[in-house]
Design brief:
This protein is α+β, with helices and mostly antiparallel strands. Among the domains are: about 120 residues, Arc Repressor Mutant, subunit A (Orthogonal Bundle), CATH 1.10.10; about 100 residues, no CATH class. The protein has 15 helices and 15 strands.
């Protein structure tokens, strides 16, 4: 197996190059989780993995109908997860994150367990009975209870209470996200044992993200290496092992048989799983271009992909129903390579509901 094979198989397994999925919740369930701090980008991350014809409003409808949930299930980072997965993922992955940030939260923000307990009581009372509140209203509830939300304290409190399984994002109020009680917003689902949860998470990750290494899985989940290794062992009967230069990669066995002709060019959003779900990204991104892709402070730019490799970044400008996509390649593209991005730009424009899509080079 070569780096080109890794890139091609990841495009297939992540449902980017050729999708078999027709519903937004199927994409999120297939991937296990979709990073979602950039809300609009995360909608496109789902949309580009669906069979043609899905629009941005279809993804938002799945969120409003409680089939997909936005919360902080891993790495203290916002993700979309399937509704039936929210509880077991939170229980499995957040305790270690909470423990790791507790001392820092108290020292830097003055947030100790007593503050979190008071916050929980205040917000539980405010949201009880199916209520949904914007972030500003949540902060007002805290302030009325004499808990300061300034200097980043409010967002830290909301994140912590989401990790504890109390709240999650709910429907949007205009363009503003709202919060609800997780128990009221998300339909009841079977809770898994720790072993069942580890096995399911590993199976999901290596099937949808493979070829990937154990270290990639540790990075994506935030698990201890020992727990990640145990999870991989339980998932191995469904996987095959491949090696490059002594490094072990794991993926679903049936993905090795795919021989379809793939579209060469793709426009991926910022923070797409194709990029952020791996500790080692060298199979798809030349390390010399890392700073062009990752602009610092954890900000991952939208990426241009040709045959699985990152060849540049891109930006959009949307005015009414017209979309302009500006490409910023790392090196001059051949004419055929530039033309290959026209269908990708048109598809993104259709997803947004734009009637006109224009491509230009920076």
């Amino acid at each position: 197996m070569t780096n080109s094979d890794i890139a091609r198989l990841r495009l297939l397994n992540q449902q980017i190059a050729s999708s078999t999925l027709t519903k937004p919740e199927e994409v999120v369930s297939w991937l296990g989780a979709v990073q979602a701090q950039d809300y609009g980008g995360a909608l496109w991350a789902i949309g580009l993995r669906l069979q043609r014809g899905c629009g941005e409003t279809d993804i938002e409808r799945a969120l409003a109908s409680r089939k997909i949930v936005r919360t902080w299930p891993m790495r203290r980072t916002l993700h979309f997860v399937a509704a039936e997965d929210a509880r077991w993922m939170l229980r499995l992955l957040t305790p270690r994150v909470v423990a790791a940030s507790a001392q820092r939260a108290e020292q830097w923000l003055g947030l100790d367990e007593a503050v979190f307990t008071r916050s929980k009581k205040l917000l539980e009372r405010a949201l009880s009975g199916g209520k949904q509140l914007t972030r500003a209203r949540m902060y007002e509830v805290l302030e009325a209870g004499r808990i300061s939300s300034g200097d980043g304290r409010g967002m830290h409190i909301l994140c912590r209470l989401a990790q504890d399984g109390l709240i999650c994002f709910s429907a949007r109020e205009g363009k503003q996200p709202t919060f609800a009680l997780l128990e009221e917003w998300v339909p009841a689902a079977k809770l898994l044992t720790r072993e069942e949860a580890l096995a399911k998470l590993a199976s999901r990750y290596f099937t949808s993200h493979g070829p990937a290494t154990l270290q990639d899985f540790v990075w994506w989940t935030g698990l201890l290496t020992s727990d990640a290794r145990a999870a991989l062992e339980m998932a191995k009967p469904q996987l095959v092992e491949e090696s490059i230069a002594g490094q072990k990669y794991w993926l679903a066995a049936n993905s090795l048989t795919a021989q379809d002709e793939l579209p060469p060019a793709h426009l991926l959003p910022s923070f797409d799983e194709y990029m952020v779900a791996y500790k080692d990204r060298s199979a798809v991104l030349n390390p010399v271009h890392t700073k062009l892709h990752n602009s610092g402070n954890g900000i991952f730019n939208p990426t241009m992909i040709i045959n699985g490799r990152v060849v540049g970044t891109w930006k959009r400008a949307l005015k009414k129903d017209a979309l302009v996509v500006t490409l910023s390649p790392f090196a001059k593209l051949k004419q055929a390579e530039t033309r290959a991005f026209i269908p990708a730009a048109n598809r993104y424009g259709k997803f947004l509901g734009a009637s006109i899509s224009t491509l230009q080079i920076h």
